Amino acid sequence: MAEWELYRAIADHWRSRGYHVVTSVTDPSGSRVELDVVAFTPELDDVRITEAKVAASKALVDQCIDRLRYAERVYAAVPATAAERLRSQAGSGPADRLGILAVAETGVEVVRQAEPSDQRREPGKAHVIERQLRSALAEGEAEGPA
Predict the structure, then answer these.
(1) pLDDT tens digits, one per residue of 11-47
(2) Which of 12, 99, 101, 119 is the 20 to 30 Å CA partner of 73?
(3) What is the pTM of this model?
(4) Three-state DSSP class for 26?
């Protein structure tokens, strides 16, 4: 799977759960692909990246993928009992686990899509998820090697 396909899959996963942030990437054919994604920098929260920022968004895509890979390694290092609790909180699929850890690792502010009648955005849960991850990691260290 190409990196942009991974990114799109994760974006689609979070969009299906009602999260909404817009950015764009260029696919291999050179077409610009706009995606609703989990934000991974606070300044991109609910902001449409314009044509002039496509190059910058590519760098952000790379950064997000790097962090997802790092998060995957962190997740793999969490002992089974703590990891299972995180897994149950994160959902059933790998995108859930990667997504929730990407949030924790990047300090993301995730925004839930507002109802049409309510233009306000709810604050994200990044700090809660980060605290859960740090707690699970601390418990894992206390438990020792599996």
Answers:
(1) 566 556 555 444 455 556 666 555 444 433 334 333 3
(2) 12
(3) 0.24
(4) strand
Contacts of 20 (CB under 8 A, 6+ apart): 36, 46, 111, 112, 113
What Cα–Cα distance (Å) separates residue 146 from each residue in 76, 83, 126?
Answer: 12, 12, 28
- CA–CA gap between residue 54 and residue 118 (Å, rounded): 30
State phi, psi for 25 to the nearest 5 degrees: -135, 165
The per-residue pLDDT for range 54-111, each reduced to its tens digit, is: 445 555 556 655 555 554 454 444 444 444 444 444 444 444 434 444 433 333 333 3
Residues 6+ apart with CB under 8 A from 26: 4, 32, 33, 54, 58
Q: What element of type H or E holds 32?
A: strand 32-36
**Residue 86 class from Cβ within 10 Å (0-12 exposed, 13-18 middle, 19+ buried)?**
buried
